[in-house]
Amino acid sequence: TGAPRSVVYLPTDPTLPAGATRETPRRARLQLGAVRRDVMLDEITPAAPAHIDGLLGLDVLRDCTITVTSARMRISCDAVEDLGVAAAPMLRKVEHECLGDGGPCLSSRVEGGWLYSGNRLDALVDPRGHVTFARKRGRLLSMPSIAAERAWFMDSTGGLRDKLDREAATRSSLEYLPRLLTSVWGDSHRSPAARRELLFRMWNECAEPSDPDRGAVGAHARHVITAFVRRVAPAGSPDAYTTVEVSVLNQERSEGPRFDPYRAEPATDY
Description:
Elements lengths: L5 E4 L12 E11 L2 E11 L19 E4 L4 E4 L19 E3 L6 E4 L5 E4 L3 E5 L5 E5 L10 H11 L1 H28 L6 H13 L10 H18 L10 H8 L20
Parallel strand pairs: 1-3
Antiparallel strand pairs: 2-3, 4-5, 6-7, 7-8, 8-9, 9-10
Helix pairs in contact: 2-4, 3-4
């Protein structure tokens, strides 16, 4: 269907004004055989025609593998099987989160960011935490005003938006790091020894593993730097760090991991 959410129609509510509808977002757990998914449901009152039972949206299918041939469509929601044809790429699982006690309920977007479907407004929170509002029409208006819902949403999502902004800045820094390293190493105005020292300074300034917020980012950045060193100045080459040089540089470190660019290390994932 292409729907990011699922819809369930409820019986008519006689207390609603004539022609009015009510839409309520709710969490639900769907189980089909061995497959279980947490989904977001939009409960809509009054009921649609009796033959409509609701819509199962792609919020359930986004973490499944779907393959199509001329004869059939097959869906695997457990493990990726050898289905005899090229499997469709796996999409990031859609997640749902309700913020705080009585805060807005958001649905994650496959391409990043979050969506909010409200009473008077819809909102898109992009991967950097910026918000775009769109006014709704034809809904039961439970908020006193558009301004009130906008202010409530911005106040409730402040922590989430700050987190998204920090994460985006971190991603941007990590994406730029390889270019910065190439620029430093390609600076012909500095001697090889000066360039090696500058690479160490960059490694040394990364967040330490003990940092509860940025320790993982620091470990990843250090892995990128040491991998770069092994590529442009491999052990035994004329531009390589010497044992004495590494020892002198490490004297600046009182704690934490030691700078040892030629030691094999596992890849980090951030």
